[in-house]
Design a protein that fits this description.
This protein is mostly helical. The protein contains 27 helices and 7 strands.
């Protein structure tokens, strides 16, 4: 015969202790959150799937880049080649094309195709990828339609290959996320596990594009996971590592944005880099608002949205005719901006015209990424500000290359609020450790300015317009920090199981002390808990007056201990649809020592609100000086006005 004590121990969770051992399975069926280990077999399974997903995502990333190069070479150089560089250094780019005015037509054709794909394939291909992935996480249980796994990269390849001023990373991130979501839908997973797989696929896509696994992991945490738990970030980190390793299989293990080695940053110049970051933060606010203003303008047009990408592509083509560098992915533009290979006039033109071309194209609802355009605009703006500051303040030893690097990262930090991902990204893609200090200062300044000037970001404005609230802060669950014993009521009115319904009704009608409660623990002659009856149960006239309370108990009670957390108690209330929980001793005696209600849980938030709003001075310097002169504690209190 099984030891009853062992049964109780097996049924116990930190979320609550069923009085009867048989309630253990019931607790599990109800899905009560207990105290699971940080990692378990399911985390191992998700991690293995994430690694396999990363291998596929890396291949998809390489394939998409090759497809973009192929379409670019066909459209602009009339060569069926998927090579970048190839026999000519401009292969894979729209540079040095002999199309003349036909350059204006090529993006329009691409826009028409993308519009048709969105209209008759899936509207989900519109946009730059990350906001759409965030929407799937927050509003749809991380369920992405399977058709997006091939429609999104194909539409992006067409849009970018025909000259769209986008980066390939956005569609790759979206495709990786879609792959992860589809895998999560093919097997039995929770919504949290599907979110992890989606984030792992997205991070793998970014890591495979830039060879930046740490920033890819941070980006997934800051923009997709909205949490920092071992169960989620371990699979994402493994996926990012795997994808970055695969990138080095396809390409040389060199930084994607190579630049001359940076030397020690002079201390006075650090303030200038922080100021540059703040100015770029202001620019990031302008960029974000401009993109959505243009999108709103397109929505006012009296034509179907299917035609918008082609209409926006007209501006792309016209600008591209005069400034070919604005066409296509243009990662080389970022490299040449941060190593100052471009003259000042070229930097200024690229900064302004890339912004105009990209914002119009993105506002038209075509398919393409935002990271590369933001990095291009930020790096050129940072370089211009750095050159100007170095000219005006030569004694501060300002390095315009550092300013360009800060501008690149600060633009993304301000526009997306992915602060840590922005700082680490700039380091991983350049491998310049001396840039970390100005990067941290500049990106933080940009983040501060952006957060002060606008509520939403370029990643969240679209989905908040659809009524989806995006978490802006990651904080520990307050209920998980408060124990039941701190807020539970110790004065418990218990009823005896041998009392009758009629007796209790007369007691309630007398309005005696304690008779106004909404629920009562019922105990036996040994003060052992039998169950809980509500006021409605007791006043139900269908129950005869002579019936004992013991016979009226309809289900076994669920209880908590004084050292359980309010989060665990709240989960119990939700899963069992109850409004109060008896608090019992942990020695298995089932003696009631308190009761916890929903009101008790709500009242616990008063401490959180007080800690965040109530300001006070804890150290009185005046009292310290008086005590130092020999005054007693009482005299110091009187003199200091306390």
């Amino acid at each position: 015969m099984t030891d009853p004590t062992h049964q109780v121990a097996q049924a116990t969770t930190r979320g609550g202790l069923p009085v009867s051992p048989s309630m253990g399975p019931a607790v599990q069926r109800a899905g009560v959150a207990g105290n699971p280990p940080l990692v378990d077999r399911q985390v191992l399974l998700i991690s293995v799937l994430s690694i396999m997903l990363a291998l596929v995502a890396a291949c998809v990333a390489e394939g998409l880049l090759r497809l973009i190069y192929l379409i670019t070479n066909l459209c602009y150089h009339h060569v069926a080649s998927a090579e970048f560089g190839g026999p000519q250094p401009w292969f894979g780019t729209p540079l040095h094309s002999d199309l003349g005015l036909l350059v204006v037509v090529v993006p329009v054709v691409g826009g028409l195709i993308v519009g048709l794909m969105a209209r008759y394939g899936s509207e989900g291909i519109r946009g730059h990828g990350i906001p759409e992935a965030m929407h799937q996480v927050l509003a749809r249980g991380s369920r992405v339609p399977a058709r997006l796994t091939f429609l999104k990269p194909l539409s992006a390849a067409i849009a970018i290959g025909t000259g769209g001023p986008f980066g390939a990373e956005g569609p790759i991130i979206a495709t990786g996320g879609a792959l992860g979501s589809v895998i999560g839908q093919l097997i039995t997973t929770t919504a949290a596990e599907r979110k992890t797989l989606l984030a792992a696929g997205a991070a793998a896509g970014m890591a495979a594009t830039f060879g930046a696994p740490v920033s890819a992991t941070l980006l997934a945490i800051e923009l997709l996971l909205f949490e920092f738990r071992p169960r989620s970030f371990i699979p994402v980190a493994l996926a990012s590592t795997t994808a970055a390793g695969m990138r080095f299989v396809f390409d040389q293990p060199y930084p994607i944005f190579a630049m001359p080695e940076l030397h020690h940053v002079a201390e006075p110049s650090l303030l200038i880099y922080i100021l540059i970051g703040a100015l770029v933060g202001v620019a990031s606010v302008f960029v974000t608002r401009a993109v959505y203003a243009i999108e709103d303008a397109f929505s006012l047009l009296p034509i179907h949205w299917m035609w918008w990408p082609a209409l926006g592509a007209v501006a792309v083509g016209v600008i591209g005719y005069f400034a070919p560098r604005t066409l296509g992915v243009g990662y080389y533009n970022i490299t040449e901006a941060i190593d100052l290979s471009l003259p000042i006039k070229a930097l200024a033109l690229l900064c302004v015209l890339k912004f105009v071309s990209w914002s119009i194209a993105l506002g038209s609802g075509t398919s393409g990424g935002t990271l590369a355009p933001l990095f291009t605009i930020g790096s050129t703006l940072g370089a211009l500000l750095g050159i100007g500051a170095a000219h005006l303040l030569p004694s501060l030893h300002i390095d315009p290359r550092v300013a360009a690097l800060v501008g690149m990262a600060a633009m993304f930090a301000g526009a997306s609020r992915a602060l840590l991902a922005s700082v680490v990204f700039a380091f991983e893609t350049t491998l310049q450790p001396m840039g970390l200090l100005p990067l941290l200062g500049g990106c933080t300044a940009a983040y501060f300015v952006s957060a002060g000037l606008m509520r939403e970001t370029i990643m969240t404005a679209k989905i908040t317009r659809h009524g989806v609230r995006v978490p802006a802060e990651f904080v520990a669950d307050f209920l998980d920090q408060v124990l039941v014993g701190e807020v539970a009521s110790r004065k418990v009115v218990c009823l005896r199981g041998d009392q009758t319904a009629g007796e209790i009704r007369r007691w309630i009608d007398s309005h005696a002390a304690g008779s106004a409660h909404q629920g009562y623990p019922v105990v036996d002659d040994y003060e052992q808990l039998l169950g809980v009856l509500t006021r409605r149960d007791l006043l139900n006239r269908a129950t005869p007056d002579e019936r004992n309370l013991r016979e009226m108990i309809g289900r076994r009670p669920t209880v908590v201990h004084a050292d359980s957390t309010l989060r665990e108690a709240a989960d119990l209330m939700v899963n069992f649809d109850i409004g109060r929980l008896p608090v019992v001793d942990k020695d298995l005696s089932n003696k009631v020592v308190g009761i916890l209600t929903r009101s008790n849980i709500l009242s616990a938030h008063r401490r959180r609100l007080r800690e965040s709003t109530h300001a006070e001075r804890s150290i009185d310097l005046g009292r310290i000086r008086l005590r130092g002169r020999g005054a007693s504690e009482e005299e110091a209190e009187v003199i200091s006005g306390e």
